[in-house]
Structures are given as structure tokens and as C-alpha cells.
Amino acid sequence: MSDRAALRPETVTVSAGRPAHVPGAPFNEPVTFASAFVAGGELEYARYGNPSWTALEEALGALEGGECISFASGMAAVSAVAALVPHGGAVVVPQHAYQHTLMLLDTGAAEGRFEVRRVDIADAAAVEAAMPGAAMVWIESPTNPALEVADIARLAAAARAAGALSVVDSTFASPLVQRPLEDGADVVVHSATKLIAGHSDIVLGAVATGSADLAERIRQHRGLHGAIPGPMEAFMALRGLRTLSVRLERAQANARELTRRLSDAPGVVEVRDPGFGTVLAIVLADAAAADRVVERVRLWIPATSLGGVESTLERRRRWATEAPTIPEGLIRLSVGIEHIDDLADDLLRALAA
């Protein structure tokens, strides 16, 4: 549609990335299983393009307000963006963030590839103080699993003034909650495995940018490194995206109500709620108490992933690679779309026990 920009984001999730409205056309872009295409057309080899990716990328690009490049996984997307940093360049990064993003950067630092500067991403002044001479400012908001919230617009403006690229991992928020490109960020990263696809059945990543130059560099990285999405995964992610608005509305309402009900629950020392999105955290006295709660729930699923229709929970410090500044008793809660009373009853029973 030529007037796509005039549509609300909730409508874009349903309408973008579809075939033209002509008689006899399918509603959805079919899955294209092909390794090669007949020479002379726009596509020739499947490592560089597939109509199934194109449909997903059109929809996500329309939502983010930029150009989208899809990847085989969230980490493939992270790796492609990290590759924009010149050799030896400094990256300002949250002290709390997705473990494997930090591990990627730390591994690169050990090899002399990066200089890593860790900051409290919620302390804008401290982040700005770390920017001089940096090549990239990596913003995760809310952070995983501490749930700190960054001032994206302020940090993006400061990064641009410092000559650094600003990147926002917006996985916990989704394009329906925050649109970092509109706030001045250069690049947005998603693990589309999570809220975007929303059904815990595929692995996929995505990058969006408003810069044609950056989009071309990222796309070239994908082609050379081969981190391409499968056509079926792209199709399923787009199908999941169609219901993002209604899933998010229900899950966010559940999350805010859970915060209210857990605030004075037995054994809960702290509830961490960024105020948006579907992920919360509760802090219990110690690891043993948190482990007992995880063992005793019946409806909540103990799992390390998040963003699906089902509710999951996990004591994050069970991973040796989790930041030592995360409390031992912190349980991350990914809130799904079940009935709020059932979710709350299950969790409160486990806490009371």
C-alpha cells in the first residue's frame, strides 16, 4: 500500500508483507523452497534472497520505519551488527544484557577485536561519559534480566554527537512498544524468536536500520557468512507477527496485574517491572528459595526462553555466565496470555509453599 505510513502499527502487523490485492492472489506470500532461481530475474541464488524473507522484511521494516534484514537467529543478527565495529574499536555496552551478546563482545575483546566498556545503561550520564572515542553504543532496553530501561533518544543523540553508531536491542519491547529508529537510533536488533514470532516454535533474528549504507553492509555480511533464515521460519515468523498486537495487549495486561499481586506476596523481596512489555522479575531471599518456587509451579513452564503465548520462568543465576551483579534469588518471568487468575494463583501457591 502506498499509504502504509498513515496506518497504525497494529494495522501494519496485519497488512504489510502481503501479495498485491489482485483477483485470484493468495492472502499470504507462499513459502518458497528453492536454492536457485532462473537467471535474469531479481533473484538468482537463495543465499541472497527469498520471497518468504522479503515478505517478513517488508512487514518488520514498515513497523520499525526502516529497512529490515532477517537472519537465521537473534545471535546471527547481533554478530552482523557487531561486525560494523572497526578492528580495535570500543563498544559501550550495558553491564546487564543478553548473555550471549556480552560473551560475543568479551570473546572479541580477548582477541583484540573490540574494546568493551561496561555501563549502567539506565544512568544516561554515565553512558555518555563512556562514549568519547567509541565506535558503537549498544543499548538494550529493557535489559535482560535486570529490566533496566534506557533513555534511548538521549543516548542515541549523544552517540551521534560522539561519532558512534547507536544500536538498540528491542527484543523485550517489540516494535509495538518502542521504535528506536524514530528516537534517533541507527540500528535496531530483534530476536524474532521471542515476541515477534510469539509461539516458541522457530529461531529467527532481524535487524532494521534507516541507513541504506548500513543496510547494505549488514546484508552483505549475511550473504558472506551464510546466516540466512529458512523460508519456513520466515513464513512462520510473519504469521506470528500478524497476532502480535492482540498477544501483546493481553500479555502486558497480565504482566502489570501480576506486578500488583506480587508486590506483597510471601517471600518476595522485590518486584522488577519496567512498566511495559511482557517480562518481569521477582527477587527472593536466595537461590534456594527461588529454586523451590521454580520447582513447585505447575502452570508456569521452567525454561530459558521468553516472549511466547505461554508463561515461563527461570532463576537466571543458574547460568554460570550470568552477571554476578544479578541477585542469586532473581526469577525472570515471561508473562503469556493465559488467564491472569490462573497465572497468579499458580505463582502465589508456589511462593506460599
Automatic annotation (TrEMBL):
Keyword field contains Protease: no
UniProt keyword list: Pyridoxal phosphate, Transferase
Gene Ontology BP terms: cysteine biosynthetic process via cystathionine; transsulfuration
Any one Pfam family match given in the protein's UniProt record, by short name: Cys_Met_Meta_PP
E.C. code: 4.4.1.2
Reactions mediated catalytically: L-homocysteine + H2O = 2-oxobutanoate + hydrogen sulfide + NH4(+) + H(+); L-methionine + H2O = methanethiol + 2-oxobutanoate + NH4(+)
Domain of life of the native organism: Bacteria
Required co-factors: pyridoxal 5'-phosphate
Single GO MF annotation: cystathionine gamma-lyase activity
SUPFAM superfamilies for the chain: PLP-dependent transferases
Chain positions with N6-(pyridoxal phosphate)lysine modification: 194
Record flagged with keyword Transferase: yes
Stated name of the protein: homocysteine desulfhydrase
Species assigned in the record: Agrococcus sediminis
